Amino acid sequence: MSLSDTHRTIDAIWRIESAKLIAGLTRMVRDVGLAEDLAHDALMIALEQWPQTGIPDKPGAWLMTTAKRRAIDLIRRTKLRDQKYTEIARSTDLYTEDDIDHTLAGEIGDDLLRLIFMTCHPVLSQEARVALTLRLLCRLTTDEIARSFLAAEATIAQRIVRAKRTLRDKKVPFEVPAGEELKDRLSAVLEVIYLLFNEGYSATSGDQWIRPLLCQEALRLGRVLAEIVPYDPEVHGLVALMEIQSSRFKTRVNSMGEPVLLMDQNRAEWDQLLIRRGLAALERSRKLGRPLGPYSLQAAISACHAQAPTVAETDWIRIAALYEALSRVTPSSIVELNRAVAVSMAFGPAFGLQIVDELGAESSLKGYHLLPSVRGDLLVKLGRVDEARKEFELAASMTLNERERKLLLNRAAECDSRISK
User: Fold this and answer.
1) Neighbours of 159 (CB within 10 A)
2) Which parts of the sequence belong to the DUF6596 domain (predicted)?
3) Phi, psi at residue 318, to the nearest 5°?
4) What is the residue range of 374's domain?
5) 296 with 278: CB under 8 angstroms?
6) 375 and 310, same structural domain?
7) Domains: count for the chain
8) pTM as predicted
9) How far is CA 185 from CA 114, 123, 199, in A?
10) Which of the chain's ends, N or C, has fewer CB atoms near its CB within 10 Å?
């Protein structure tokens, strides 16, 4: 394997293992900032050693063991009290190649949920929680997070640093809380899991359209949370949404890894087990007898797609109505953009375009590539292909995902072909 191939492999391993590393190390040192530094130290050692020694059979175990050794060395160097050192060392045995599979499936998984509850503590603002989540769990760069917030990179970097310092200074416990404290943090935790899933479902940047492992981890955490908090309808609603959305994974990309849009997917290949699990979770949410919240409403929209054999048989009028309800529960320009698509399918592209054009003045959608992308699609349906081509080219210039950029440029080229005929 060449040096560049090795580095690409290490980068892929890091994307998969980093959140688990940081969670496990946070349990040990009780400082999320220090845990992230220790994880990066292990990565640097891997980048130095693995090109010469080869990649270990279980790289996650290697990284965790290396990082924990660094942590214990740090504890020794800082000369903490013997009692404190003994307490920490006793609770953090080093990982071995023999027990890593069991540990990653159990203890580390619990640590990820504890990390999410820790970073969702009310001492942090909502913006700080989101930024820290995108950094620690989704592994987005500061620049990528800044783009999603439409903010300066320096602002986001300071926000993340302050958030980690606040968690350390306030000695926020690394635990899943109970009682009222759990209820108080639940909506923030659901938002974090939702963000984690969405980043896996449509990657913000990089060479891949989807990151299935992120979705799998978010879904697993959602299922665990549903066992802990069975009385909350939105927990079941989020699980339902993730189950149904996950059913489409096989059809979201073709054999070349290129995106396949919802309208073009082979519905016969959607995972029926996941759909049934999602519908059951949605029913549990409804049976709790409260009005549907934002996650349950989105799950109901996904259920409409999942239960329709074809695009033509989809109940677009119901989907448009559900988006209308969602916009009242959580007013959002992005929800309105999705409603425009549903309206166009239910009542015609001209009605959808009217909504999209009204959204053009929204500052929250400035730089959001899906606005010109949706507009381009509606213009194609109206026969205004020259205008559509420009919209697809604009959208391509705005996205950070290479697969999506290629898709949008291909759509622009298709418009060119139609114009030339």
Assistant:
1) 22
2) 185-285
3) -65, -40
4) 367-421
5) no
6) no
7) 2
8) 0.80
9) 12, 11, 22
10) C
Whether residue 378 lies inside any domain: the answer is yes
Q: What is the pLDDT of residues 60-110, one digit of tens each?
A: 899 999 998 888 887 776 654 445 544 544 444 443 333 333 333 344 457
- Alpha helices (H) in 152-267, listed in sequence order: 153-169, 179-201, 212-228, 233-246, 249-252
**CA-based end-to-end distance of the chain:** 48
Give the DSSP letter string of 93-132: PPP-TTTHHHHHHTHHHHHHHHHHHHHT-TTS-HHHHHHH
Domain boundary among 285, 314, 343: 314
How far, in Å, CA of 223 to CA of 362, rounded?
36
pLDDT of residue 318: 97
Q: How far is CA 420 from the centre of its chain?
A: 41
Residue segments in the chain with a per-residue pLDDT below the cut of 70: 1, 77-109, 148, 150, 421
In a domain, residue 161? The reply is no
- Among 418, 324, 402, 339, smallest CA distance to 369 is for 402
Is the separation of the CB atoms in 124 and 132 below 8 Å? yes
pLDDT in tens, 348-402: 999 999 999 999 988 888 889 999 999 999 999 999 999 999 999 999 999 989 9
CA-nearest of 176, 28, 194, 189 to 95 is: 28
Cα–Cα distance, 153 to 143 (Å, whole number): 5
Question: Does residue 275 fall inside a structural domain?
Answer: yes
CA 191 to chain centre: 10
Q: What whole-number distance in Å separates Cα of residue 265 and Cα of residue 234?
A: 28
d(Cα 78, Cα 376) in Å, to the nearest integer? 59
Q: Which amino acid is at 291?
A: P
